[in-house]
Amino acid sequence: MLKRPEQNEYDPYFSRYIELMPEDDILAFLDRQRNRINVFFGHLSEEQGSYRHERGKWGFKEVLGHISDSERVMSYWMLSLARGDTMKLLGYDQDTYVNNGCFGEHTIPELLVDFEAVRQATRTLMTTIAETDWLRAGHVADKAVTARSLLYVMVGHTEHHLHVIQQQFGR
């Protein structure tokens, strides 16, 4: 079972995501989080999925697409570090990804299928990483991190968006 990363495993920038992780059993948390996403987004109508609480803000479909894209990108970063790749990894522009994601053209069930596939791929990837490889370090967007810390950042990032939804919309 993976333990929370130590503070020396990640740049302080990422602490806002890692601090959202309440426990050490990351696999159980991944599954509970997946279920919460399916329940919340699965109960939205297509009209609700396109709702934007403010002009220029993302709708629910864009948020779900962003969560999936971010998990894809961060899984790649995690894979790269765990496999011993020493090249510096670039960050990504989340707004460019969302603006070009065409998420509004997809139904919520389609976006949930995509999220499920990404989450399952993350879980499968985790099984191929040896215990010692989780501690391999590198740089992402010029920030020092370990593979383990990236997993916690990735899941904490999703948790961040679920908290924002809950705070803004009481769901």
Automatic annotation (TrEMBL):
InterPro entries named among the record's database cross-references: DinB-like, DinB/YfiT-like
Organism this protein belongs to: Paenibacillus elgii
Name by which UniProt lists this protein: DinB-like domain-containing protein
Domain named DinB-like: residues: 30-165
Domain of life (superkingdom): Bacteria
